[in-house]
Specification:
Elements (H helix, E strand, L loop, with lengths): L1 H6 L1 H22 L5 H4 L1 E8 L5 H10 L6 E5 L3 E7 L4 H7 L4 E9 L5 H26 L2 H24 L6 H26 L6 H32 L5 H34 L6
Antiparallel strand pairs: 1-3, 1-4, 2-3
Helix pairs in contact: 2-7, 2-10, 6-7, 6-8, 7-8, 7-10, 8-9, 8-10, 9-10
């Protein structure tokens, strides 16, 4: 099967490219939800009429039209909750009266400014540049270096597109998860490239198959652990939005990595090696 896949390397490359272009269009049209860290918001202290769980409070607030809810503290009758920008305090006070009494409000400024986000973009750009240089030094070949960078870049774009589709907000947590994805994507790409270029045993198809077994096992294990984390936080500790956002972004990125590494990068390397550059 692996030989048949590699013989159709043009299709292998085309599939991730098409998905990446679709995700770019999704982000361009739909945009990304911004978390409270980016746009600021309001923190409200509420004295509840009766103790309620964080999940029940979140559900009630969602029902009355409140968005971007983050439970900061809930010790029974005293609740502290943070909302996104555009919050109407007077309207909220009336609608929440059945739950309890609003004690006070105060505004919070964005934690991440536009300048900080620009620095994050530059950091990601330089990370890709230095990764390309490192891969080029290791393998002494331009195409493998470009393949690693292209696969990692498409991985990030697909993950961001997934964030747009599933309304995972861009926040400190999700930005951190995106940076983690860069490292993981490069790890699997290096695994594949090393097996094909450095190993001598067997055919190219055999080496690719062995690399795929190892890489996909790693990815599945990571995806399962992130799914468990996401479900636990959503069901039992919904106030832990940082953990759920990280888990959601990593799930999207790890799924994308399977496509970009074992379709795109494998197709690129198969095309390159098939021209006799390093075919063993």
């Amino acid at each position: 099967m692996i030989k048949k896949l590699m013989d159709n390397y043009k299709i292998l490359i085309a599939i991730p490219v098409i998905i990446t272009l679709i995700m770019l269009a999704v982000v361009a049209i739909q945009g990304l939800d911004q978390g409270i860290e980016l746009q600021g918001g309001t923190i409200a202290s509420i004295k509840l009429n009766e103790p309620s769980s964080s999940s029940a409070v979140t559900e009630k607030l969602t029902d009355i039209g409140v968005k971007e809810i983050k439970i900061l503290n809930n010790n029974g009758n005293d609740l502290t909750v943070q909302f996104g920008s555009g919050f109407d305090s007077s309207k909220f006070k009336n609608e929440v009266s059945s739950m309890g009494t609003v004690v006070n409000y105060y505004e919070v400024s964005p934690v991440l400014s536009q300048e900080a986000m620009d620095q994050v973009v530059w950091a990601i750009l330089f990370a890709f540049i230095f990764m390309a240089i490192t891969v080029f030094i290791i393998f002494r070949e331009l195409v493998p270096a470009l393949g690693v960078i292209l696969a990692a870049g498409c991985d990030i774009i697909i993950a961001i597109g997934g964030m747009s589709i599933f309304h995972v907000p861009l926040s400190i947590a999700s930005v951190g998860a995106i940076l983690m994805l860069i490292g993981y994507s490069v790890d699997t790409d290096i695994l594949l490239t090393t097996r094909l270029f450095k190993r001598k045993e067997g055919t190219m198809e055999y080496r690719a198959q062995e690399a795929m077994k190892t890489g996909i096992t790693m990815s599945i294990a990571a995806i399962v652990s992130m799914v468990v984390l996401y479900l636990v936080t959503m069901i039992y500790i919904p106030e832990a939005t940082t953990l759920s956002d990280i888990a959601a972004v990593l799930i999207l990125g790890l799924l994308a990595d399977i496509i970009t590494t074992w379709f795109m990068n494998l197709g690129i390397l198969r095309m390159y090696l098939g021209k006799g550059k390093k075919n063993k």
